[in-house]
Amino acid sequence: MTARSRSILDMNAFQGIAGGDALLARRLANFGAASVLFYDQPIELVRGRGQWLEAADGTSYLDFYNNVMSVGHCHPHVTAAITAQVSELTINSRYLHPKVETYLEQLKATLPVALSNAVLCCSGSEANDLAMRIAMKATNARGFIVTEAAYHGNTRAVTEISPASWTRGGCPEHVRIVAAPTVAAYGADPGAGFAAAIATASADLKAAGFGLAAFICDSILSSDGVHADPPGFLAMAADAARAAGGLCIADEVQPGFGRTGAGMWGFSRHGFVPDIVTIGKPMGNGYPIAGVVTRPELLAQFCEDTGYFNTFGANPVAAAAGLAVLEVIRDEGLIANAARRGDALLSALRDIAARSDRIAAIRGAGLFLGIEMSGPDAGVTVRCMTEAMRARRILIGAAGRFGETLKLRPPLSLTEEDAEFFLKGFAEALDGLPATQ
Amino acid sequence: MTARSRSILDMNAFQGIAGGDALLARRLANFGAASVLFYDQPIELVRGRGQWLEAADGTSYLDFYNNVMSVGHCHPHVTAAITAQVSELTINSRYLHPKVETYLEQLKATLPVALSNAVLCCSGSEANDLAMRIAMKATNARGFIVTEAAYHGNTRAVTEISPASWTRGGCPEHVRIVAAPTVAAYGADPGAGFAAAIATASADLKAAGFGLAAFICDSILSSDGVHADPPGFLAMAADAARAAGGLCIADEVQPGFGRTGAGMWGFSRHGFVPDIVTIGKPMGNGYPIAGVVTRPELLAQFCEDTGYFNTFGANPVAAAAGLAVLEVIRDEGLIANAARRGDALLSALRDIAARSDRIAAIRGAGLFLGIEMSGPDAGVTVRCMTEAMRARRILIGAAGRFGETLKLRPPLSLTEEDAEFFLKGFAEALDGLPATQ
Questions:
Q1: Which domains does chain B possess?
Q2: Torsion angle, CA of B327/B328/B330/B334, rounded to 10 degrees?
Q3: So what's the ipTM on this one?
Q4: Facing A286 at nearest CB: one of B101, B155, B317
Q5: pTM for this structure?
Q6: What is the phi-psi region of residue A293: left when phi exceeds 0, alpha when psi lies from -120 to 50, beta otherwise?
Q7: Burial profile A182-220: b = 16 or more Cβ within 10 angstroms, e = fewer
Q8: What does the pLDDT look like over A240-296, one tens digit per residue?
Q9: Which residues numbered 200-259 in A keep a CB inside 8 Å of some CB on B?
Q10: Mutate to test the interface with B, among A79, A101, A108, A165 (most CBs of B within 10 A)
């Protein structure tokens, strides 16, 4: 197994350096050092349907990882919407198009009423980059607080607040990190400890002359290892950030669009209203679309200093894809399905964990689950499990500061049969782990 | 006519604040202060075919502006490619897919052989953001030189090198601007003057402790007002930047993919090889795709410090769209068409200009043309012309530091009949201009 590169962003990508494969050789020649591939022997995929992906060698994989195609691979309703609109008109938003407005109205209907302005862009990175600047303008401050293994995207500004991407040079001077809310980090009341850490970090940023622009947090702390409980801890954290004069940005790029099973957005589990919400990944079920939703006065303040126009953002094809995703989530009852299947999986995994000393914790909400492996070699165990699951035709990923947590994010359309296939494979892979040293 | 906001990026967008229209009211409620619309009465578009756009009121407009749908609106070959792939598989690049590699190989075949690594992303902004960081790592410097009305995108880092977006606060301390290569700015030898200005700016950045990371330039200086001649000035500019230890980044987001009629890329007219090339807008004929192409060692140096993964970049649908665009450019001879139609338009416009004191200069290459209006009120004249052309069913835009230049970028599939329609409308609009004060 190749060494995991620390330059790889979401803790579970391996450099595919095995030779001999013609397609892999072409890939490495084209992508160069920026090639990031899963698995020791990367998989060539050819087809996606629902929860399943088909490889070039004919193998079918149950997708328990890729949360972009969140309503199911090649969902016919989304495909039809994209096909129809791309055949009719693609144009930028400096002209009017009713589909764009209909989409934004339906999107806003899922969000707190105060967040009534939206900016559409292409990627979660663009969304978080813009959100940072809105917060800096609103607060006249430059400091940011993030969780210690956070990943918020790949632009220069966003990389500076993404510890998961730092390999050299450490923490930028305008950034402070806080540990995820765990008993290990904060003792018996992790939520209170987390909020207190934000207060301390805010004071430190103020003393250093940066002030606090925002506390930005993925509302399920995905790359920190998936931390969903207790519901409410993010509200306390937001209060702490606001008490220090900062805003609270909920990064819903990963947990958004129904994945947590408790409403459309991860932050709603925590009972508070963020100042800015950033959205992306599953928003178009694969079509590149992302966005920032915020209060009108915050956006207006930002626009005093610079305009913002995004060539591809808010084009009618993006709106058509986004609208179709909202319709599928509603019409197929996918939030309820995520809750029901997620609860059943959590319960079944906790039963397995109770019988295995290799599992340290089971966490998550809805169909966003983390399985933290135990022991000092947990990162190695995770990599063994990831490969063992692949051998059992199940795709999963990894998360956590040390890559110690298995990350599970199947399509929201997951069936009971799929869940059983996963659980059987997981139990076998766990049983097949080599004994600890 | 409403006042042009300085916060608007490409010098020709007007805030649509006229009331009474239900769709416009929805738009303003959704977009808030970030709403950027063309024309005093914005246009609702419903359909695009080839060079033509159809509005909701049934009016057909000849599109002489929107350079994203560069091979023609809803080109059937591109539409078919997107439809087929979106029905089969959308997946990220951590798995292998042959279409992605085929696309990159065909793309690289159009570029200098030294630039053999590519990173695909979603927008020109993401591409330029990444290019800046590659240059900073390679040079261990932080300074950038840009042209005085440049626009390179909308991320935080890229906005800092985009004078067209600055409304308050002026030039960041790590940035130096140089005037476009004109006789007005530099005298009889604008190319030499431009290069000398870069040398001076480099020395200044060095003295200020920033050093020179890169000189970055749109290879047709689009937002500076379209400056194509004399061919070769960019080679001298690149030499000056390299002599100061910096790299040269060719921003081909606007002029790339055959638009200048002299090969696939704007820089090839100037006879030099950039260190980094950024591409975007017309790359997928409307599908969000962009990229950075560079030498492997520059990318490898960057990846020592941080990985780069882009969720939507290099997905097979993006590759299918990009591949189809390359095929259409080749199969329909669009570069030759851009050269032929562009030469004819230049010639006809120069004939008109010779008879009109309202035109200061005609510039451009291929189907990227600029018409600089004369006099101290040239910006007002440009706005009058833009509205007058709209009344004649022709969409154009504006560019230049003071919005003094009409910007023309019709689809590369422009026909002789289209060109005649444009020229007739242009002559009428010019004749209809109110007399100067």
A1: 76-331 (3.40.640.10)
A2: -160
A3: 0.95
A4: B317
A5: 0.95
A6: beta
A7: beeebeeebbebbbbbbbebbeebbeeebbbbbbbbbbb
A8: 999 999 999 999 999 999 999 999 999 999 999 999 999 999 999 999 999 999 999
A9: none
A10: A101
